[in-house]
Amino acid sequence: MIELKSAEEIRQMAVAGQFVGELLAELSGVAAVGVNLMDLEHHARRRIAERGAESCYWDYAPSFGRGPFRNVLCLSVNDAVLHGLPHDYVLRDGDLLSIDMAVGIDGWVADSALSVIVGTPDPADEKLIEATEVALEAGIAAAQPGGRLGDISAAIGDVARSYGYGVNAEFGGHGIGRTMHEAPHVSNDGRARRGLKLAPGLTVAIEPWFCRSTDKIKFDEDGWTIRSADGSRTAHSEHTVAITTTGPQVLTRRPTPDATSGGPTERSASAS
């Protein structure tokens, strides 16, 4: 069942979204050469507790995975792209780190992810991250009232192919609202003008992820961490988006530096 949210309910989701965006920006600044993944995990646990929020990952137990997830972040390094378990690993120069998180505040949920390079960047990794970010913005721009779910999927897939990457459709975006995973599934590839009609009040997490040289994946023995099948680098970007009568509203935009004052400012909440 798909629940369409009211304007007030979207506003409440935006509260959770703002916190998620701010914390992801904070974590991306903490991630550095010599930092342990568990330091990032415990930093996030502390901030979530201080805010009075609830992690959607803690005790999450889907059909895959071995036992409930007992962390508040997914931290995926290099060839790992989704559901990476935080563990005792010290970040090295040139590592590509994807950070994914979802929290609930007052019964409403937001979910977002980003990828960053720690230390010295490899141009090929920068291109890969850029492709996920461009695909995400294309997917958001396609999330127009009266359109179709396939418009979002097709926009993401088109960007992937334009960058020379394949698309894996096993895992993708999803509906979101009162819980982290709701209907509908939002594939990272598809056909425009097909599928569910996009109505105002629909809220979805759009999350393109690509591997550098394959569209195949494999699971670690932990049952959670998903990696590229050939060991190539990966990247992942995600936002929670509400479809409104005037277009898509991004609820998890991260603060960006103000060019004039040097302080943080919130990016526009609408797709440009």
Automatic annotation (TrEMBL):
The keyword RNA-binding does not apply. A divalent metal cation 2 binds at D111, H174, E207, E238. Residues 258-272 have a biased composition (Polar residues). One of its GO terms (cellular component) is cytosol. It comes from the Bacteria. GO terms for biological process: proteolysis. Keywords: Aminopeptidase, Hydrolase, Metal-binding, Protease. Binds 2 divalent metal cations per subunit. Has a high-affinity and a low affinity metal-binding site. The true nature of the physiological cofactor is under debate. The enzyme is active with cobalt, zinc, manganese or divalent iron ions. Most likely, methionine aminopeptidases function as mononuclear Fe(2+)-metalloproteases under physiological conditions, and the catalytically relevant metal-binding site has been assigned to the histidine-containing high-affinity site. It catalyses: Release of N-terminal amino acids, preferentially methionine, from peptides and arylamides. GO terms for molecular function: initiator methionyl aminopeptidase activity; metal ion binding; metalloaminopeptidase activity. SUPFAM superfamilies: Creatinase/aminopeptidase. Substrate binds at H83, H181. Residues 246-272 are annotated as: Disordered. InterPro entries: Creatinase/aminopeptidase-like, Pept_M24, Pept_M24_MAP, Pept_M24A_MAP1. CDD domains: MetAP1 (cd01086). Residues 12-244 form the Peptidase M24 domain. Removes the N-terminal methionine from nascent proteins. The N-terminal methionine is often cleaved when the second residue in the primary sequence is small and uncharged (Met-Ala-, Cys, Gly, Pro, Ser, Thr, or Val). Requires deformylation of the N(alpha)-formylated initiator methionine before it can be hydrolyzed. PANTHER family: METHIONINE AMINOPEPTIDASE. NCBIfam families: met_pdase_I. Belongs to the peptidase M24A family. Methionine aminopeptidase type 1 subfamily. Monomer. This is Methionine aminopeptidase. It comes from Micromonospora profundi. The gene is map.
